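Sequence in, structure out.
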Amino acid sequence: MAVDVRSAALLSASLLAAALALWWPALEAALSRPPGGGAANATTRCPLGFEAGGPADHPPIAGGGAAPRAPAPAARLATYANARIWTADPDPDARWASSLTVDLASGRVVSLGRGGACAGGGGAGGCAGDAGGAVVIDLGGAFVMPGFVDAHVHLVPGGLSLSQIDLRGAASRREVAERVAAAAAAAPPGAWLLGTGWSEADWSEAEGGAVLPDASWIDEAAGGRPAFLSRMDTHMALVSSEALRLAGLDAPGAGAGVAGGTVDADPDTGRPTGLLREAGMGLVLAHVPPPSLEARRAALADAGRHLLSRGVTAVGDMGWGLWGAAENTWADLERVYDDAADAGGMPVRVSAYVPLRTWRRLAHRVAVRGDHHAASGRLSWGGVKEFADGSLGARSALMREPYLPEGADAPPGDAGARGARSIEAGELRALLRGAAGAGLQAAVHAIGDAAVDEVLDAFQALREDCGGGGEAGGGGGEPGSGGCGRGVAHRIEHVQHISGPGAAARLGALGLVGVPNPQHLLSDAALLLPLLGAERAGAGRSHAYGTLARGGARVAFASDWPVVPIDPWLSVHAAVHRAPPGTPPAGAPPPAPEERLPLEAVLLAHTAGGAAAARLDAWAGALTVGRRGDFILLDRDPFADGGSLSGGLPRVTATYMDGACPATAREQPERPPQRGRQRTRFVAAAARDRPLSQAGPRRGARGLARRAAAAAAAAAAAGGRAGGGGAMGKEGKNKPKKDKTKAKGQLPEPLETQRNYVLCGPAVNKHTATATSASQYLPLGVDNAWDFDAWSSSFEIKVRPPRRAAKPARAPAAAPRPPPAAPAAAGRRRAQVNSLSAERVEFDMLGADPALANALRRILIAEVPTVAIEHVFIVNNTSIIQDEVLSHRLGLVPLAIDPTRLEWRADGDGAANESNTVVFRLNVACRRAADGSVLNDKVYSRDLVWLPDGSELPDETGCCFSATQEGRFDAPPADVERNILLAKMRPGQCIELEAHAVKGTGQQHAKWSPVATAWYRLQPEVVLTREVAGDEAAGIAAAVPGLFTLERGRLVAGDARQHEDKLERVRRLLEHESWGDAVVLRKRKDHFIFTVESTGCVPAPTLFSNALTLLAEKCEKLAGRL
């Protein structure tokens, strides 16, 4: 077939795009080398990560500001020699070394030198690393130790807190007001004032001592703005009167009886005082604008720099606390951490925990993606968090005996007498059983002695459910099999007050990890005696670190940042001396000195212990062969003076990650080029010219780039063959018509806006129809036909995180109407992926016709194949569930089976064999145990057992395998959710059957549809039609804070996409008699924002890739018919 010039050009461009996608990693590495092609300066500096703009107390770097020299870019091995290295090795005999060699390509420790000997694979160069390409860095006798592992922080909230009002150390009402007033002076009108860190324990005696504040403390300073100031423990908050008004809490009795919390009220008037506890805080937090995605990403970067400056290289991230935790915590994991890890931008190692109540969602993520980001080794998941009670400072920690009345500014009524229970015992046990059954690690917050005992009871019950052996998570089966998961050590967070040594012994016997916070001992010291009395504040009861250790419990120390500052050496000192550095005041000995621990035990709990607690011990916590080279240099040896720290606290002079500078460092030694380095974790289909049913999986961004280039090539080829509508010439060949009608200009402004935008009014939308007639605007000299050639040649798929929004421009001074929208240029026609996770993908399709958007949506729902149970052969079913109902339920169970590994079964009734059928057996019998308990009374989807050798009933089922399916799949076929209830039975009843799964699509039956949701919306825009200033600008900014801001007294409209939750407020603005002509809300007709969520059968990014393949194949078929 003849190929015209246009087709040849389009095909060449597509092949070039595919080649660039294939070889880009190598090209990128080559282009990024320094001029000359050789190694860069072998003495590149290795700073901490933020030389300028750091905190005032940032430790100085030894050697006149220069950290030890970093290895040259071309070096593969780096040996850090002439040092005193404390390794935190579990073997006490291997706890000291003099040199350390790191493989810079992998970041792993490959050997340690001890007095001339080498431990590990030193190679020909030994520990000195003088083999080819290696470099030696002389540390000049510096003290080196593993980076601190803080097992319990709130990472993004901590990063956000760095730019909020810091009330730590405020010693008086006046000082609190001054800090609030300073923040209010810099804030725009109507903006929320957010802060944290106050504690009544800090008030001086001259100010009345530990009296709790109220709204009158801050109302004048806030200047009428809403303010939310959380106590240092985040379980209590002080809010302004304006915040109470916005939350509807400004009337007598407002907020009374809120479940799980308290709104403190004036005893005389009944009006809220401005002090909120536990769930009471949620009543106001619901009105605080959530941080934008960009703010969250910036908070992660800020938090990383802050942690690295303190020598912290790994953390366990507990998310957003109790109120609003699920939504915010999952958003951080899926939209901030995943993107950062994919882009190589995680500043520290993070083990992310999500709320226990969402354990099914996490179990699904683990089943689909594993439990860590393999490419970077800097992001892990697999832990869940729950609260059993509140805090001591808020008087909501659950105690066995009441708080002392003379010390308790407790909320009225019995609820505050002993604290508050955050979850009922039965519910906690059920949730723990489910999470542990899925192989997840549970971490439960418990501060009061009663809460600790109740959590111990729950873990004891879990152990008994698992068969009574091993750890609380250790006996009874593999993860997800109905057991409790092997080798999972669950945690009790804070474990601040215990009922006695017996509780510590139980914690040890159950194999649990206690995660106390030594800095909490310092912040709560003034409250212990007044609230608890001498016995409960004494040895064996409060902050009983020694008792926990002697009881056999594993201990991992943590900070709970931003509840307290990130200051590992202050935490170490508190655990060693139970007091802050310096001479204690006369007559004020440290509380319970018997609970002190020796320095090395404390350092182990801050490093190796923290890594084990946070499930990061494969990478961090110790400098041993195989772990990553994360270490810090100190200005002094902490073990000098017998480990008493009497010479002062050490200061961090340099922090290293993976044996080199942190990713946030200004100057960073380059790593050896790593071809094909994985940046995203999902499966993409194979080459375009193979049918989807035969395509094998390809992983990573390169796979998706190949798929995108292939889809573009198909669309381009189709466009080249179909170009222009093709009239048949005399020679019988398709010749594209020359476009003689398209004008160089555009439509008049009102018509151009009408053609390209939906205008959103206060009640109805205008111009919702899409103009599809090619001749609609011919009288005006404009051809409205869709130029398929231009569209297909410019279409591309881009995988990248969304860019930061550009600074919004101010509206022109005299714009009489909304600014015109330029027609979609060819370069705009593309799809841009904004976020990727196994469960969800969001991408933009720009410059597309609605018909194309709808076609892609239908393909996602009905044409991407999956595997589902189609044939059920009942052997015996004596349950009350009818055979047809049971078969229908089995068909709807999502299966984690790669459809590309199976062939289509001819017409659904062809011969069943190993290439087109997956066989499961279900055989469950309910019976009564000897103790009278009922076993197997519920049948779950996890009871489906894969039969790799095929049917055990070949004569009845007609299924005959000629070879085993072992090795055919990347993972054994199984259901996705693992806990779908199929039937209930009573003793004597049973279900025995075989279920045969085949490949199908959603257009055959909904059970094969791989999507939970697939929908799109139009890109919103908010524009100003004229300049708005003065009171009018302030009014609009206050009505929709965040979206509208003030700049030099003039109104500026922000990015509507980042504030979609506020667009309904904008609609209400349009009803205003004077504001309606200043603000326009509109939506672009050719800009579609797709959201696709997977049922779990196929990861969402793979759905995206496969749908593009099918769309390209449709284009080819259509072009062939044309």
